[in-house]
């Protein structure tokens, strides 16, 4: 083993759990604790690096939210970047999400006050909190939409992703994005889809997205599509087992096009479906659609 290289058995698994208040963070933290993680909720960001100074006795789950006294999206992103660079840490960011309507309903049922609007109706604090957390949501390794989930269903989903009996399994996230807005941070590999036929130039397809079957069919009709998809699929299916052997827990793959609305979305959907059918644990992220609120629940 070369100097400075970390032994696989010396790597500490750390899960940062965040998301808007009311989305299920406490339930997720409890589920991780039941799975054998050392769980600490509402930890100030400045303390995290000191807590991780040295090997951990067992995997660690840290709950981070806007109530922390030194919380800011910038500080959170800096922490994620810092921990990602640490060779002795295997970092994963779990983001619990839900629609505004679902969060308002939950606050109404529990009669709790929102931390950003303690003297006002919860809705006054919910939207600013979602906006505040938007840059962190984009950086999530695992995103769970709890809008229609019961606490039992959320615990089951957390178990599916983080059960230590399946620690060798690789979680794959597949992202679509627009080159005009820049490449998403954190991608392990990416592919350019701009050579494919662009639905933007078809009047009836222009307002639609790659989630629409008509757009997906248009992209798939490009004579180069089948070979491109097949080559990327075969490459990923060849590489993923190798990343498992290296001890990786997560791999992020990106597909970009000009606007991030049509071609990259359609290809992301197709690749994610293919990998899931091959037995891999896959999540999908459509950055530009998420910014416009156009993704479907669970996407």
Quick structural overview:
The chain contains ten helices and nine strands.
Question: Helical amount among residues, as a percent range?
Answer: 25-40%
Kindly, what is the distance between the CA atoms of the first and last residues, rounded to a whole number of angstroms?
A: 41 Å
Low-confidence runs: 1-9
Number of helices: 10
CATH class of the largest domain: Alpha Beta
CATH topology heading of the largest domain: Rossmann fold
CATH architectural arrangement of the largest domain: 3-Layer(aba) Sandwich
- Beta fraction: 15-25%
Radius of gyration: 20 Å
Average pLDDT, rounded to a whole number, is 84
Q: In terms of quaternary structure, what is this?
A: single chain
For the largest sheet, list the strands in their spatial order.
2-3-1-4-5
Biggest sheet record:
5 strands, parallel
Q: What's the structural domain tally?
A: 2
Silhouette: globular
